[in-house]
Structures are given as C-alpha cells and as structure tokens.
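Re: [ENG-882] Designed sequences occasionally contain unexpected residues at chain ends

Forwarding the minimal case from QA. Structure tokens:
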C-alpha cells in the first residue's frame, strides 16, 4: 500500500538522520540491541500516528493517539539521552542522572495511560473523550503520584534513601580503616565503626544492634566493589515503582478481556490482539526491573539490560505487525465500511474475525463450535 511505503521511507530517513548524529556527535555509544529497539519504537510511533490520522472512529482515534504519544515520546527521550553528558552538558553527571530518572517516570506513565484509557473507553463507551481522559488521569495519576511523588518533591531523592545512606556509612568506615592501615577489613571490623541506623518513614530513629550491623554490612559490601557497582542499589526505588506501574497495566489488560468476554462490546479489528500483546510486554518490563533490583553490580545490571532488549524486541515486532494490520485494514474499502458500520449500527453487524483468528480456529479449535470471534460468548451479537 502507498501509505505503508511512505511510512517505510520516512522511517528509513529518520534512521539515517539518527545514524549520522550518532557517528559525528559524541555520545554514549549505545549497543546494537538498544538501537534496534529505538528504531522499532520510532516505527511503531509513526504507524500509530498514521492509524490516528486515518482512523474512522473518533473513539478509536484517542486510543491510537495515546499509543503514538507513548512510542514517540519514549524514543525521543532515549535518543536525546544518548548525548547528555557527552555532547550536551559535557561532564555534568547530574543532568544525565535527572534526565534518565524523569524519562523512566514519563515512559511508564504514558504506557499506563495508554493501556488504562483503552479499558475506560470500553467500559464507558458512551462517555465523551474528555470524560474518559479525566477518569484515566485520575486512576493512572493517582497510582503514579502515590508511588512516585518523592521524585518530584526532591530530584535527588534516590541519594537520600535508607539503602544509600547506609551504603555511604559503610564506604566511610572502609576509608577510615584504610587510613589506619587496615586495607582489607572484615565485615565485623566495618560493622564495628559504621553508623548504621533504624529507619522509619525516611528518618533515622535508632541504631542497629551489633549482629544486625554485621548482616547489614554483608548485604551492602557487594555494592562497594567497583566505581559504579552501587548504581543498582541507587536506582532500586525507581525500578520498584516501574514494577508497580507495569502491574497496573497488566491488571487493566485482564479487566479489558474480562469485560470483553462478558459483554462483547463493539471493538475495532485487531484492537484486541494489540491489547493482548501488552500482557507479555508489561510482564517483561516487570521481569526486567525485578532483575535490575536483584543485580549486585553494575556490570550484571548491564548484562540483564542487554538480554531484556532482545526479549522485548520479539514482542515489539508482533506489536508492529498488528498495528500495521490495523492501518492496512482501516485504509481499505472493506475496512473503512466495517469500522463505520461498527460505530453506527453495531448490533446488526457481524464481528470481524481476522486471519489470526481463523488460523487458531483451524488448527487448535473446532470450527463448528466457534461462530464468531475468539474469546467471545456464543450469542446472537457475537455470531458471524
């Protein structure tokens, strides 16, 4: 199709411009896996934007506008971050730290917003778009503010956590013992002079007992080995909050399919498949962030990050496939007619069953028992 060709050429042009910038401007030299994921995010954003432009349903326009914002904002933030601390704000580690921190928060907020909006759109189909946006903002914004408000109260919040405060105390003790001639102190020797406290609501309210100090020093010592080994410990609260936002997405995806199964509301072609693919995507995000938390050194965190990119890559390719199928469908005469009829007279139109549905029915199910879409109740509304 002409529109897909235009998208492909625009995407190649964008990749070429980005490649030139990475070659001639100082940057962090990202891995090939990271660059491939960035390229897919860019293409996904462009496809979603095209779906939004060509979408015949006003309700669905908002859905794809949200996904376009998620993919495009994420790829712009990531690409710009490649140059911060190198060509931009050269040598300023704080700027890079702040940019990464707020990119992570923005990424998961937009992801959650896009997914929750789909559910709200399905539950409250008769509401106007601004009311759906308000409900979505209250849900996502409420959860987001509950878990992430410390980052906005204090941009350097991660350096004030209990883990980092105790880490600094252990490092200070090691340096003190080193100046006294003890280059390789034992855990007990470090614990003996370390000022490790009992914490409550971010405030130190007491001192640990000797045996508790020893256990705490043993926990923190792996993060002392190496200049950047403490970074997994530093970003632990951020990664934990990312998990909470991803769990919110998974919960709402299951809510979406539960409501779809029980009520079989009108839904555009391929939208269900797209939403379903966000289950493995968000599950991988949970797994990746949990692995980051459990990493005890920065090198391990980077290795986990690399593996995570390749796992996510497969999921992104499938998302790209179904977003593209949606674009091709709504720009066809058959698809445009179906989508308009679905909006104006949904009760008297058979639900679309795409090639993927037919493939599953043909090979894994009984075709005589499945008259409509997959996972839809057998009722006059759901029959083809």
């Amino acid at each position: 199709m002409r529109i897909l060709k235009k998208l492909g050429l625009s995407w190649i042009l964008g990749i070429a411009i980005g490649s030139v910038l990475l070659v001639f401007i100082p940057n962090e030299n990202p891995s090939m896996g990271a660059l491939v994921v960035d390229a897919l995010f860019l293409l996904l954003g462009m496809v979603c934007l095209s779906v939004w432009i060509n979408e015949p349903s006003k309700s669905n326009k908002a859905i794809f506008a949200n996904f376009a914002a998620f993919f495009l904002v994420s790829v712009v933030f990531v690409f710009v971050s490649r140059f911060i601390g190198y060509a931009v704000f050269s040598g300023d580690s704080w700027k890079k730290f702040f940019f990464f921190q707020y990119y992570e928060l923005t990424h998961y907020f937009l992801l959650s917003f896009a997914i929750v909006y789909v559910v709200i759109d399905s539950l409250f189909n008769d509401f106007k778009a601004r009311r759906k946006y308000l409900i979505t903002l209250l849900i996502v914004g409420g959860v987001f503010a509950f878990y992430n408000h410390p980052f906005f109260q204090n941009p350097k919040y991660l350096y004030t956590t209990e883990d980092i405060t105790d880490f600094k105390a252990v490092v200070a003790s090691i340096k003190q013992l080193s100046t006294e001639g003890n280059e390789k102190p034992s855990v007990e020797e470090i614990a003996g002079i370390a000022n490790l406290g009992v914490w409550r609501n971010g405030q130190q309210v007491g001192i640990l007992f000797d045996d508790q100090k020893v256990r705490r020093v043993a926990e923190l010592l792996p993060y002392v080995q190496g200049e950047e080994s403490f970074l997994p410990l530093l970003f632990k609260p951020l990664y934990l909050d990312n998990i909470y936002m991803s769990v919110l997405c998974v919960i709402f995806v299951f809510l979406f399919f539960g409501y779809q199964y029980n009520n079989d509301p009108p839904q555009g072609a391929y939208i269900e498949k797209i939403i379903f693919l966000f289950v493995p995507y968000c599950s991988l995000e949970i797994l990746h962030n949990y692995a980051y938390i459990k990493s005890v050194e920065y090198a391990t965190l980077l290795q986990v990050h690399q593996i995570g990119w390749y796992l996510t890559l497969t999921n992104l390719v499938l998302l790209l496939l179904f977003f593209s199928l949606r674009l091709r469908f709504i720009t066809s005469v058959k698809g445009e007619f179906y989508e308009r009829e679905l909006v104006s007279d949904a009760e008297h139109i058979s639900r679309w069953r795409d090639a993927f549905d037919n493939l599953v029915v043909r090979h894994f199910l009984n075709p005589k028992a499945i008259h409509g879409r997959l996972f839809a109740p057998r009722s006059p509304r759901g029959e083809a």
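QA comment: On inspection the terminal residues look reasonable. The radius of gyration is 25 Å. Proposing we downgrade this to a documentation issue.
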